[in-house]
Amino acid sequence: MEVFKHNQPIIGFMSNAKKFAILSLTLVIISLGLLFVKGLNYGIDFAGGTVIQVKYSGDAPIQKVREILKKTKEYQEASVTYFGSNQEIAIRTKNTSKNVDVDISDQMRKLLKDTGKLEIRSVDMVGPAVGDELREKGLMAMILSILGILAYISFRFEWRFALASVLALVHDVTISLGALALFQIDVNLPILAAILTILGYSLNDTVIVFDRIREGIRTMKSTDLSEVIDESVTRTLSRTTLTSLTTFFVVLTLYLFGGELLKGFSFTLLVGVVVGTYSSIFVASPILMWLKFSIKEFRAKEAEKLKREKEKEKMRAMYEQGTI
Amino acid sequence: MGTLNYRVVIFLFAFVFGIVFSVPSLIQSQEGKKITLGLDLQGGLHMLLSVKTDVAVESKVKSIGTTIKYKLDDEDIIFDDLKIEDKAVKFEVLDKDDLPKVQKILQDDFKDIQVKQDGLNFTLTLSPKLIEETKKNAINQAVDTIRNRLNMYGLAEPTVAKQGTDKILVEVPGIKTQAEEQRIRELIAKAAHLQMMAVDEDRDARVNTMSKAEAKQYGDVILSDVSNPKQKYLLHSIPILDGSMLVDAKVGYDRQNNQPVINFKLNGQGAKIFGDFSGKNVGKRMAVVLDNKVYSAPVIRERIGGGSGQISGNFTPQEAHDVAIALRSGALLAPVQVEEKRSVGPSLGADSIRASMIALIIGFLSVVVFMFIYYGMAGAIANLALVANLFLILAIMSLFEATLTLPGMAGIVLTVGMAVDANVIINERIRELLHEGASITKAIEQGYNNAFTAIWDANITTLIAAVVLFAYGTGPIKGFSLTISIGILASMLTAILGTHGIYQWILPKIDKNRLNFWFGIKKGAK
Questions:
Q1: Does residue A292 surpass a pLDDT of 80?
Q2: Are B238 and B81 a contacting pair, CB within 8 Å?
Q3: pLDDT confidence of B525, banded at 50, 70, 90?
């Protein structure tokens, strides 16, 4: 099967680059706005607090649970929501207890004992000190990943390629975070893992495209960068979409079937995969163009390099033959 | 068939290796190395504890008080006003002639203690070095103690380890119910601080009206009875002896009412102190105090030798069992506190396994079907590599006895989607070359060549993120970066090297007139 034809006419991506730039900028600005206005909904991993997951043998009496907690002084602020099904609820509170022997889960069990046949399925409690530490570590991980990737890409590609791909990366992460803020998804450690995965993965497509552009610069006749980019992007269109598609499949199955605990994680990845694919075509490549990458200069440099290498080889050959 | 080449040999070897070493994990055999399930999948309790080291320092001061009291008594030195104030032991020697003796005792037996003498008044404080040592000691001791308790409780493979400089990681798998979890938490938290304390008979009559502050002035504390909180005792705050001199504690049954009791034995030094004290204080009461609750306060009828005693309270057999364990494994020098707790019930763990398995199977099938439909035999070859990749992940994790967590499962699912990316890139390159009219051999060789840098770069960037996550992540998240890293590395072997080898192997079979069957393209080679 072939969806993308071999002789597919070259698409004028770069002539439309401005439109997509406006779209991207709008999305980024909306995301930043969301992050600023609504903010990220930090889960207990980073904010500290307790989440208790309770499953009832029948429908969960969520109203009754809310009433009981309203009446209990320590848990007035607690939020109670359905979790995955009508039978399960999640109770979230900012409270934590330092006691080892009797903790919030034991108190909760006592409070809810008359609400029906229930099972406390999980208790996650993160004290404020640990929350701070995890947040610090999380931020550190983000920064280090970006720096590491930046370093690698600059090592492998010319600096303008590196800058363009990192800008695309920032674009992807910002929009993913914006989506998290929009839907007020609990930001916990798995979300951090998802964001870091997006950092690594959204580069995949960019690398595929850039690799081809680099090749095009060497082999194509044209010295017009936008033409080279257009052709390279068109030729790699099948690759970029298909690789994203296979990943999208599995992330979607994770989202649909992987259970409630992986929902936030797989949602973040879904957004990241889609945005990452879009950005490698419509963000990274135009930036490369706007950074005024000069093909002539590049070719001259390459030729220079080749010449030097050849000379070296010649010298070596002469040396080996004993003529020097 | 073509010639066997090194690539396909390595691939086949990796495939067999993968299957062989993942078998123990897949069939959950007793033999061989296998993957352990994380607490989030098998259910269990994970806690990060901190130690209140200040309390350890305080009780160190107290124990110095106990020792000094004993030594002074032993030398028949008369003293008064022995008390603990502001983390210091203070006392006054009444007879000036005893001063040299006191100074000798302090010099010989109290190293690292700072002594301040003001006439007949002595103030003993801990040196900063000793304070530091006491704190460190308290943490290490808590690790050992908690480990001992959990081992004696009889649970399968609990983990107790020091984390960083001042935290303790406790992981207990296989807990069945909330009630059992609480019982384990109680066992961990129990101070198990046993003390024999003398009742202040001169003032005990006034205990019900006495304030804590007043009691402190006399060097006393007010403690209440374990089963009847209204019953109070006025006790000398410096104990006669404490549980550090205990050598054994066992559950027994009271002969009269058949109630569970705990029989304990003291070591030689403890037995001597106990004997001496009881000999000198016949007719007075001595309280058995456990974790600041008075369990009994019998009147001493005669000198008690042998160094054994009994704790009786309204224990249930279960409580008695746990208290005996706690006493045997020693007291916690300082109380522990929860910094982080994650507890997963067994049913949730099972649900997580089921859900992630379903996601893995559906994700795998959709990718496999897609690859086959889109690329024909080339897709099937990629699928073969994918299967090998999955086995390799399991095998490598088994060999290292790594922990598989829920995010780790997600990592495996994600690997399925990402590992075939390499084959998509390669196949697209091959198709491109075929369209351009290259021969099959040339298309394959050059296709792999052209595709390599892109795959390599893409994998490295993902690997960088995964490694950073491994370094900075905690618990289950580490599991994610682990599976995804192994998955990426394994995919280089299977998806790149392996499939390349297979093509070279079956090259003569590939019919250039059936490119649709082999590569899914509708075009004959020129």
A1: no
A2: no
A3: very low
When pLDDT is cut at 50, 70 and 90, the band that residue B524 belongs to is very low
Taking CA–CA distances from A52, the nearest residue in chain B reads B343
Work out how many domains chain A is built from and give that number. Answer: 2
Average pLDDT over residues B488-496: 92
Residues with Cβ within 8 Å of B468's Cβ and at least 6 positions away in sequence, in order, are A141, A144, A145, A148, A196
Give the per-residue SS3 of A78-117.
Answer: CEEEEECEEEEEEEEECCCCCCCCCCHHHHHHHHCCCCCC
Within a domain: A115: yes
Question: From start to end of B382-513, where are the E strands?
Answer: 403-404
> Do the Cβ atoms of B453 and A211 come within 8 Å?
yes
For range A71-82, the mean pLDDT: 88
Per-chain mean pLDDT for chain A? 88
pLDDT single digits (tens) B409-423: 999 999 999 999 999
Closest Cα of chain A to B190: distance in Å? 8
Pick the CATH number of B6-43+345-519 from 1.10.10.10, 3.40.50.150, 1.20.1640.10, 3.60.15.10: 1.20.1640.10
Find the CB nearest A254 among B359, B373, B473. Answer: B359
| A303 in contact with B, Cβ within 8 Å | no
A156, A238, A257: residue with CB nearest B358: A257
Both tokens of B181, joined, read 């979890």
**Do both A246 and A119 map to the same domain?**
no
**CB-based contact B371 A119, cutoff 8 Å:** no
> How distant is the Cα of A322 from the closest Cα of chain B, in angstroms?
36
Express each pLDDT in B188-245 by its tens digit: 888 888 888 999 888 888 888 888 888 888 888 899 988 888 889 999 888 888 878 8
Pull the structure tokens for residue B503. 């093509």
Q: Is the pLDDT of residue A104 over 90?
A: no
- Cβ of residue A239 closer than 8 Å to a chain B Cβ: yes
> In this complex, is the C-beta atom of B526 within 8 Å of any C-beta atom belonging to chain A?
no
Q: What is the pTM of this model?
A: 0.84
Indicate if A229 and A109 belong to the same structural domain: no
